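Work Package 4 report. The design task specified in the project plan requires that, given a folded chain encoded as structure tokens, an amino acid be chosen for each position. We show below one input record used in the internal validation round.
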């Protein structure tokens, strides 16, 4: 899913603002929840983005967690642009790892097992 968003999303206007097709969203969520293989090319970029947003909204504590969110707000307040860039760059690596771990923990807690689809999505 993320690969398709990464590949096609930048060429699609308002990819995270335009809603996906509701029926296809339900279908995609159902496939993912049941660990079924998904032909991702059957779904539009907007549908995939909408499903991803739906998932991210349900993560307890938010995507980054309260501490990291507070750090982002502190970075925004900095005057020195070079320092802002350096701190954001350091955080990006941490956020990537943090998101993967949170994703695994939440999925395992909710489902009690790992599915091939989840492992592949994280790799």
């Amino acid at each position: 899913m993320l690969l398709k968003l990464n590949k096609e999303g930048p060429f699609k206007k308002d990819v995270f603002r335009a809603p996906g097709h509701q029926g296809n969203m339900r279908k995609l969520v159902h496939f993912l929840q049941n660990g079924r293989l998904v032909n991702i090319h059957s779904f539009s970029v907007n549908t995939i983005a909408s499903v991803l947003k739906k998932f991210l909204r349900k993560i307890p504590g938010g995507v980054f967690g309260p501490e990291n969110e507070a750090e982002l707000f502190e970075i925004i307040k900095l005057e020195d642009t070079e320092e802002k860039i350096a701190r954001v760059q350091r955080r990006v690596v941490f956020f990537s790892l943090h998101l993967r771990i949170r994703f695994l923990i939440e999925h395992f807690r909710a489902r009690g097992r790992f599915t091939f689809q989840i492992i592949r999505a994280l790799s």
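The chain has two domains: 1-57, 59-123. Validation will be extended to a larger panel in the next phase.
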